[in-house]
Amino acid sequence: MTNPSLLILPGDGIGPEVMAEVRKIIAWYGDKRDVHFDVSEGLVGGCSYDVHGTPLTDETMELAQSVDAVLLGAVGGPQYDNLDFSVKPERGLLRLRKEMDLYANLRPAQCFDALADFSSLKKDVVAGLDIMIVRELTSGIYFGEPRGIFKEGNERVGINTQRYTESEIERVARSAFELARRRNNKVCSMEKANVMESGILWREVVQRVHDTEYPDVQLSHMYADAGAMQLCRWPKQFDVIVTDNLFGDLLSDAAAMLTGSLGMLPSASLGAPMANGRPKAMYEPVHGSAPDIAGQGKANPIACILSFAMALRYSFDMGDEATRLEAAIEKVLADGARTGDLLGPEGGSPISTAQMGDAIVAALDASL
Length: 368
Ligand code: IPM
Ligand code: MG
What we know:
By secondary structure, the protein is α/β, with parallel strands linked by helices. The chain has 12 helices and 12 strands.
């Protein structure tokens, strides 16, 4: 049997640093668990632009289409701010999402016990928090036409279009209901049906998918602004939240902060099953390229390592190994290991990116 294939795209900023720690984890699985991957590596984002004049080459795009899973670090940086829109680092990421048709973006927000004190919210509001945001990732205002900056009389007008077809809503709704069945069986759908026609359709279609296919799952609807408020007020009321591309972008950043640090949260972007039964998939941390701390060994590699854990679970049917890795991270945090982002106002001495990776490897060793 051939090994499952993995394309690693470290990207920009702290991407390469956190990905180096994931490579340690991958090596550990090979050495200690006899779990092997065929790993290839490529460029995405600004680093690809620097070499090829494009944030993603056709060759890398083809490679991404051919592997079992893609693992991405982060893209972007201030040195690329003035580039033409069409070659900005983010376009590489968006092209991957769109062409691989990764319509369901899973963003868990889980609060590790050891970090409950560190949230900006009160401890009892976040302790034990475990919610999953399912963000539609390939449509909506990110991709709708018409878009652009146009001349209108004496001035310019900037246009983006929120657009959803019924089938686009249906498939992401199904992803959310399927996930809910394996969790606490609750879905809350968020839109702005009070002001947007696309929101009216969203609500109708989610309700229909529920009534015809998932009547056993508890479904509620909320306006996305109220949803943001409820996420801060009492986030534990939620299990799975399903929402569109733009609201999902905002709500997932807010949810991430509930858990204490953006440096902790992974994501999985899943599409339709491939011929081998695995879903098309890309895994990436929710955090960005953090150019301010790039290259200094300060970044927290946990979000990227947890993204690899999601790959084990959702692409490779190794839920037990994913749980082992998550438990190792939990242990390291409980033992007090902290990168800079995990130190409260009172400070303390942070460990480096590499030290955090090593600590997790040691905890994996201890799990055997
Ligand atoms: C995210 C990011 C991206 C997005 C950017 C980098 C294009 O914010 O993954 O949440 O807006 O989707
Ligand atoms: Mg975002």
